[in-house]
Amino acid sequence: MVWWLGLMALVDTASAESCLVQGMAYQSSRVGTLPNGAWVSDASTCQSNCAASPFCDYFTWYNDSKSCWLFGDQATLKAHGNATSGPKICDPVDTKMSVTTGSEEDEKKVVAKLGKLAQVIKTKTNDPKVIEDADKVIRSTSAGILPDRDIVYPVVNEVSAVLTLEEAEKEDIVVVEEDLKVINNKELGGLEPAKPGVSYGAGAPWRDAVVPYCFLPSISHASIQNTQAAVNIIRRLVPGITFKPLRGNDGGCEESPAIFVTDREQGCFADIGMQFQVFGGSQVMNVPPICSVGVVLHELLHALGMAHEQARPDRDKYITVLWQNIKPGMEGQFGVMGNADASRPYDLTSIMHYGPTAFTKNGLPTLALTARGQQQLNALGAYTIGQRDVSLVE
């Protein structure tokens, strides 16, 4: 836990329109509390899902992965550049959220502060990547331009690693909540449109293809074994990716960004791609023992930046979604990401594709093959769509 967390102070909301906040994400603050994930198109739909659930009080929607997470009342807010969060119903008496929009003058102040911060960090850190980002921040701010969040966050993260709070205050480079809101209001945009011959991941790639990760100290042995098996599969099949083991504690990994492998929550889930944590900390991949090696591999590929295969915009050529058989509240899991990469052949047998009965409420299929899909499956010599059988990918 870094000292920046003590600077966060959230105030009352003023209106229904101001109850959602960008740049903040909820995290479960007790074992056993959902999040319940789904794919939805926007934050308003995510809020509607929350309002329809008797177990949801607050939600977070990630604009990069289009994933919606629902939380009970035991949830805490943390900074996250790609998130929009709020209560199930906008209510003026809700005191957990606040929204302000930065003026031009506010932006100028933040630009000046970030420029000074980058100058200090450049002289204090030994991390060549942070130095490189600090140089980019210096160049942007020298031109009076607010740098993008993916450049700013690693530099801001480094402050608590090389300075005490007192030293940062003396240098006048303490980044507070209002600064974060100005930074987060500079939109990076969503996924890039798919282009012929060019492929994009759904999430941010890991720097230099190095993926730091660690385990919760109390995690089960089975979860460690399944995770290491999944890591070894990727190491063998994609040798260009390097996994970097780190020490972990109850709060995360010793470095950031990193994947914090836990088994504290219900279900198997992970963020998509590398997540920048402005206050340090680690993104969570939750894989309790019930998650097989194949399922852990699926979640690890999410963490590396891959979305679901059936979220592609061309999926209806191959499969039909049987909405009537899907569990209530899980419809968002079957959404389409309009800008997803469709330049490669659609893969019905991908480990990132749902199986035919995913999220079924009655045991009946939720996904059915079209004639074209059946033809492709036959050509592959496969018998079903989707799979978590690691022997098929090894």
From TrEMBL:
Keywords for this protein: Disulfide bond, Hydrolase, Metal-binding, Metalloprotease, Protease, Repeat, Signal, Zinc
Keyword Zinc-finger appears in the UniProt entry? no
Asked whether the UniProt record includes Metal-binding among its keywords, one would answer: yes
Which EC number(s) does UniProt give?
Answer: 3.4.24.-
The Apple domain covers which part of the protein?
19-90
Signal peptide residues on this chain, from the entry's feature table: 1-16
Q: Where is the active site?
A: E299
UniProt cross-references to InterPro entries, sorted A to Z: Apple, MetalloPept_cat_dom_sf, Pan_app, Peptidase_M12A, Peptidase_Metallo
**What protein does this entry describe?**
Metalloendopeptidase
Recall the taxonomic lineage recorded for the source organism: Eukaryota, Sar, Alveolata, Dinophyceae, Suessiales
